[in-house]
Every structure is written in structure tokens, then in C-alpha cells.
Amino acid sequence: MQKGGPLMWLILFCSVLAGAVFLERVTYFHRASIRVGEFVRGLANLIQQRRFTDALHEAAGTPGPVARVIQAVILRHEAPRGELKEIAQESGQLEVPRLERRLGILATIAYTTPLLGLLGTITGLIEAFGNISSQSGYTTSTDLAAGIYQALLTTAAGLVVAIPGAVGYGYLNSRVNTLMHDMERAGIEIVNLICDNRNKVPEIIDFPPAGANPARQRSED
User: In whole angstroms, what is the distance from residue 20 CA to residue 17 CA?
Assistant: First the structure.
């Protein structure tokens, strides 16, 4: 850190910030991810029995954006199919900013740390050749190599921070896309379940009139 110059401390700060953002987002996505198929199948039994209150409590007690989208649809289960689809889409759009929170910081660090390293290299070379010129051009190869070595440290440090930052950003972005797909899938399935079971009429058992003899009724039939 001392040989690299003052920009090394700025690169170190960027690395700490990038690590904190990555760990926070990974923890958030781990808590927000659920098994959508199993969750929807569990709600399907409640919806088929028209137990919407129990289904709403089940969705409200499950963390994550997928459960919140389902909760918004179940809350308005009496609405037409088109309106339910719009509710699912709007709820999913409201969850997108939460999913993409702080990802811009990680992308910015991944893009700017190589530039900071390059800037440190240039300033280090300027300082090294300035020392050579102040000595009227008389310097040894050891002094020149030491100056270039010191200047190149910042470029190496910038790349060391930028490469994992770019990989981490790509991974987190893929998690965002996966959750968005899960929200869309869950919203469509819940809307279809509600609308398909809405038109089902429960079967009614026909009982014979009061006082009628069942055996006599069967013989007459």
C-alpha cells in the first residue's frame, strides 16, 4: 500500500465496498428465493377449496418478492382475469427496484477501478521521470525499475478489484433475472388457478324426499 501511492487507498476502499455490497445482495437473494413449484402447489389446494383467507395468510408469512406478488393477486381474487394479470404485472414491477438495489455500485466499482489503477500508473511514471530529469538525466537502471515497479502496482491492484467485481455483478444480475422469471411464472399460475376454479360448481348429492322408503324407491326405479 505504501509503495503504490495514495490511489492504492482509494482502490482498497472500493474493494471493501464491493465486498460489502456483494455479501449483502447474496444474503438477500438467499432469503428471497423459494421453491416456486412447491409453494404454488400448496396454495393450489387452498384455492381449489376456496380458502382464500388461509392462502392469503400463507403467502403473507412467506418472505420474498414471489410471495408478495402472489399475495397481491389473492387479495383481489374476485377481480376479472384481465385485472388479475395487471395486478400481477404491476406487483412484479414494484419488486424490481428492490432486486436491483446497490447493483449499480458494484458495476461502477468494476468499471472504474482499472481506470484508477491506470491513473496511478501514469502519475507514478510522471513522478519517476520527474526525478530523473531533476538529476540531469543521470540515474541508474535500478532507480528507473523501482519507479516503474511502484507505478505498475496500482494497475495490478485495480485489476485485482475489477475482475471479481465484474464476475460478482454478472452473478447477481443472473439472480435478479431468475427471480423476475419466478415472479412472472408464479403470477400466471395463481391467476389461472383462481380463474379456473371460479367456474367450478360443487357437486350436490340428491337425497330422497322425507319419509320415503329407500328400498321401495329403488324397487320402483
Answer: 5
> Where do we find the cell 541508474?
140
User: Which ranges of 76-140 does DSSP label H, i.e. alpha helix?
Assistant: 81-99, 103-134
Determine the Cα–Cα distance for residues 126 and 206; give it in Å rounded to an integer: 98
- Using alpha carbons, select from 92, 68, 63, 59 the residue that is nearest to residue 176: 92
Rounded to whole angstroms, the Cα distance separating 181 from 187 reads: 10
Structural domain including 149 reads 7-198
- Kindly report the pTM of this predicted structure: 0.76
Dist. CA 192–CA 195, nearest whole Å: 5
Q: H or E segment at 142?
A: helix 141-198
Number of domains the chain is built from: 1
Torsion sign over Cα 171, 172, 177, 178: positive
59-85 pLDDT, tens digit each: 888 888 888 998 888 888 888 888 888
Rounded distance, CA 74 to CA 52, Å?
A: 7
Report helix, strand and coil shares of the chain as percent, to nearest 5: 80, 0, 20
**Nine-digit cell at 90?**
404491476
Cα separation, 158 vs 156, in Å, equals: 5
Is residue 209 in a domain? no
Q: List, for residues 118-142, the tens digit of each pLDDT value.
A: 888 888 788 777 777 776 656 666 6
